[in-house]
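Reviewer 2 asked us to include a model.

Predict the structure of this chain.
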Amino acid sequence: MDRKEKLLTIGQFAALHDINKKTLMWYDETGLFKPAAKNAENGYRYYSYRQSPLLETILLLRELNVSVAEIQKFIKMRSAESLKNLLEKKIKDVDAQLMHLQAIRKTLHSHHQNMVTLQTIDLSEITVAKKEERCLVTVDIDKDTTFEKEVELITAETSRRRLGRLRDASYGSMIPIKSLLDGCYDSYTKLFIEIPLLTQKAGLHIQPGGTYLRAFHKGDLSALPEKYREILTYAKARGLTLTGYSYEKGINETVAEQIEDYIVQIEIPVLTQ
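Predicted model (structure tokens):
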């Protein structure tokens, strides 16, 4: 007898596929996957090795969260075309899951880096740092934009672009360098939202990669103008030309209990030759 035609007990067949016997029993009861033979006297189930490819397909689909009803429908109309279509759909789902996990990883890394920064920074120091290009979702604001309106704008933009929850993002505010050079330290023109792994760049603000001045401010935000004066003095003394926008972002919101502990990171692009 061909070995592939030899019948295996339910225990042997379950062990062969590294599953529980109860799984095979349930598949039988639901009509999803029937044994090759069943003993009429004692009800013992027996399986053929030739059934293995179908069972492995079912196990794969179940692992991909395909419903029993969907699998039953596929089995009734089983063909290369139907399996191809089903697998294409699941590949898209897996790709989406991978993107989500990558976004979570990037968010975790960002929070971790913020905590490392908190433990090592000298708040009085202004440094030169390198940054990679980032894509930011922005909303326009001005001096008359209320906090309630800012929340409304961010919520609307998040929903419009289907960005997910803000816990997956970092966000902050932007002020043009021209305003700072003119002594206008509260002329914020944009709020930004950075979502990990944005796939669509159309209509986004590109924060350029390159050299940045980086500084930190702790405490009441009304004292931020003094920090900006320090930054401008630092840049002038070193012949550095600042360009674009200043990007402000809180880095300890999750651990700061009061406004006096709140730390803002300031990053400003430096024009290079």
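The first strand starts at residue 7 and ends at 9. The helical segments are 10-16, 21-30, 52-63, 68-76, 80-120, 147-160, 177-181, 224-237. We have added this to the supplementary material.
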